[in-house]
Amino acid sequence: MNYMFSAIAIPLLGAFLIILLPGRIKAYASVSALGLSCFFSVLAAVSVLKLKVFVSERYITDWLSISFAADGTAVFMAIVSSFVAFLISLYSLEYMKDYENRGEFYFWMVLFVGSMMGLIFSANLMLLYCFWEITAVCSWRLIGFYRKEKDLKAADRAFMITFFGASLLLVGIVLTYLNYSSTDMFFLRDKALVNTVAFLFLAGIISKSAQLPLQTWLPDAGVAPTPVTALLHAAVLVKIGVYVFARLFNLTFIASPLFMNTAIFISVSTIIVAGACALVENNLKKILAYSTISQLGYILLALSLNSALSLKIALLYILAHSLAKAGLFLCAGIVEHESGTKDINELGGLAKTMPLTATAFLLSAFSIVGIPPFLGFWPKFMVVVTALTTGHAIAGVFAIIGALFTLLYLFRLFDKVFLGGQKISAREGKNSLMVLVVMILGVLSVLLGLLFKLPLNFLNAGL
């Protein structure tokens, strides 16, 4: 399917083309590459609705094949990731315009998205691992973008933790090959996975998705420019782990009840612990980072329940979280850009001078909290109901408690930053493109919640 290959190849090749382009053209080339990747992902989705699945495979050795497959899960994930990345790149046109080394940012950003697209469509475990590691290198360079000592330490910490997980993932892939003489995911479909290998895979997954106990690197990644943190949290990096969990344990292998119950325990623990951390944190970006960790716990919980609806719920949650969390981070970026601080105790009253930013933040926050009829309500409600009706009542109760934590920390954040007396002079007027992007994300969180059947109908038809 040419559309699938175009969605992968355009950002991968475009990243290296950006190196050769002069000045500000790099920025527009980045926006164009990501926009085209999203466009071809949509065309691939149209084809998948007709064909259900398209596979292209060419063997290099018996353990590595250049195998790509487009199915409903892959194209849905590709559209969400590339669309949000495209909006972040638009936002970055204003945010990054004064940075002399912005060309480096655009190179790594586009390569990041291209490697994510390659991972999404990979149908071979070794090929998936290769793209997994490229995303790790990209995130390492982007987190350390400012090159100060604290930035480099945060980048190194992120790389080492995710590399540790990736190494265990690779061991799991090797053991799978030794057991089944194949790394092709279609051949491995419905094969039983021993617990040792399953937990090796899980270690890699939770390191990338920042789940307990390997979550510590993500809050510190907020030292990077806001477009980077939005990309990590909403579009690309942390979604990789839960996507691979879905690909391996909901679509390929059969895992034991012990493994699934362990994943449920990890997800619920993550929801509560990360939510509690967000309640006491005062750094604007770290609060949102803990929120990401907690919300990814809900996605992992949905997948771990392994019901007939698990995959649909998780994909809807990824859509809702990607839009709303990108909106929150980009709103935070406008605040930091104009105020020069991330300490919420130094902020206040900004709704008076930043009314559109405050509105967009509130719309996105409503979706993350799960207030009807915002998009985030539907998958969060379905996670809780599924847990309660599949014999996991304790997990369902903790999921409800986690939702209350989400309500408390996001409205504490809104109150501290946008309400009360104004402490710092900051205005949004000169950031019209940045404000436009956050408003788009906020409105989409409302609109898709009202038109909830549109993404649901696609998933019903494509899965």
Strand-pairing-aware structural class = mainly alpha
- Helical residue percent band: over 70%
Unreliable segments of 5+ consecutive residues: none
Query: How would a textbook summarize the main sheet?
Result: 2 strands, antiparallel
Q: What overall geometry do the principal axes of the alpha carbons give?
A: globular
The helix tally amounts to 18
* Number of domain modules: 2
Description of the structure:
- The chain is mainly α.
- It has two domains: 1-255, no CATH class; 257-463, no CATH class.
- The protein is built from 18 helices and two strands.
- The protein has helices at residues 2-20, 25-51, 72-95, 102-121, 125-143, 149-180, 195-208, 217-220, 226-235, 237-250, 257-280, 284-305, 310-339, 355-369, 377-389, 393-418, 432-450, 453-462, and strands at 54-59, 65-70.
- A two-stranded antiparallel sheet has the order 1-2.
- Helix 6 (149-180) runs antiparallel to helix 7 (195-208) and helix 13 (310-339) runs antiparallel to helix 17 (432-450).
- The longest helix has 32 residues, at 149-180.
- 58% of the residues are buried.
- The mean pLDDT is 93.
Keywords:
2 strands, two-stranded antiparallel sheet, 18 helices, single chain, 463 residues
